Amino acid sequence: MKGLVFLDLLGFSNMVRNDYRRAKDVLDDFFNIAYQLIHKNPEITGTLFSDSLIAYSNDKSLLLDTVCQLYRECLRMNARYTERDRYFLLPRGGISIGLVTIESKTVAPNINNEFIVSPALVHSVKMESGVKGSRLLVAVNLDNGEAIDFTCKKNTRTTLYDDDSIEFWSRYQYKDALWFSDLAKEEDEQKREIEELIDIAIKLVIDNNAIADNMIQHIGTLRIGLLSYSKFFEATRPSELFSDILHIFREDKYWLIWVALIEMAMQSKDSWAVSSIPVLNDFLKKVSLSPGWIEVLKEINKSRNKYIKSLFEQLYN
User: Fold this and answer.
1) Is 96 strand, coil or helix?
2) What is the C-alpha separation between 216 and 203, in angstroms, rounded?
3) Residues in contact with 281: Cβ distance below 8 Å, sequence separation at least 6, in sequence order
4) For the chain, which end, N or C, has fewer CB atoms within 10 Å of the first or last residue's CB respectively?
């Protein structure tokens, strides 16, 4: 019973159609990052093909932490790119636990056949295909408490966030890895790194705001950054980052970011004070009568978003 991850690159097919050479540069960066991280962790076995990665290990927490580091390094690489509306490096995927059978056969001098038979691979591929943005979903079997397999080490570096809105297989719960944060680092360093990565995620949203579907993908990435940041958010002393995001994303088309901001703030250690933040109150007064707020209400009233709706209720109460 191994932990297995399947991931690929967001939007890579479009990159190849736009410019083969630029797409190859992005893929080279992905391969280099993946190779370096897996090479230094021999407990993990990985296979790279096209823009996809399959990796598995008996050490589930090490696999999770390594993949989260890969996500951080890939996002950081985007700060070096130009034309981020067309070329960016963002993995998305899923991790699950299951039997993994690998067989290698040489069927002819010039044909090698290696195949993997694994329910975990089928599950992880299913998760990858169903998420928006650079997210890493972790599947937990409710019948045997698999969550502990991913958090069993004292030095586990990743926080898992329950996401009740995700449904794939019955009897499973799905958790988002809050990969912007590396718990192995000191808190001040963690905070600085999250803020640095959120800044890159903000730029990706802005650079891709012309096409709604593309923008939604990048908002999905930013949401994971904001949720990673919630442990450092202080409602009694709101950060400049929080104020800047409220200022930058006032247009109605950014309503999903409004939801993510409130979701983040209402999980802070002093969430009781969120409703008294002046900059947030001013913001809500302006947007609550806008067409974008209609979309917010539709979203939080979906049956799969009961938890987020409860956070809004706490805020308004």
Assistant:
1) strand
2) 13
3) 275
4) C
In this structure, are strands 111-117 and 172-177 parallel, antiparallel, or unpaired?
Answer: unpaired
298 vs 173: CA distance, rounded Å: 24
Contact 46, 55 (CB under 8 A): yes
φ and ψ at residue 74, rounded to 5 degrees: -65, -45
Q: Where are the beta strands (DSSP E) in the chain?
A: 2-9, 44-49, 52-57, 91-98, 101-108, 111-117, 136-141, 160-162, 172-177
Q: What is the pLDDT of residues 123-161, one digit of tens each?
A: 888 787 778 899 999 988 777 655 556 666 666 789 999
pLDDT for res 105: 62
Give residue-wise pLDDT tens across range 21-61. 999 999 999 999 999 999 999 999 998 988 999 999 999 99
Helix, strand and coil percent figures for the chain, each rounded to 5:
55, 20, 30
Strands 111-117 and 52-57: unpaired
Are 258 and 295 in contact by the 8 Å Cβ rule? The answer is no
Question: What is the sign of the dihedral through the CA atoms of 252, 229, 213 and 83?
Answer: positive
pTM: 0.92
Length of the chain: 317
d(CA 255, CA 177): 23
| Residue 113 banded pLDDT, cuts 50, 70, 90 | low
| Cβ-contact 287, 246 below 8 angstroms | no
d(CA 123, CA 79): 32
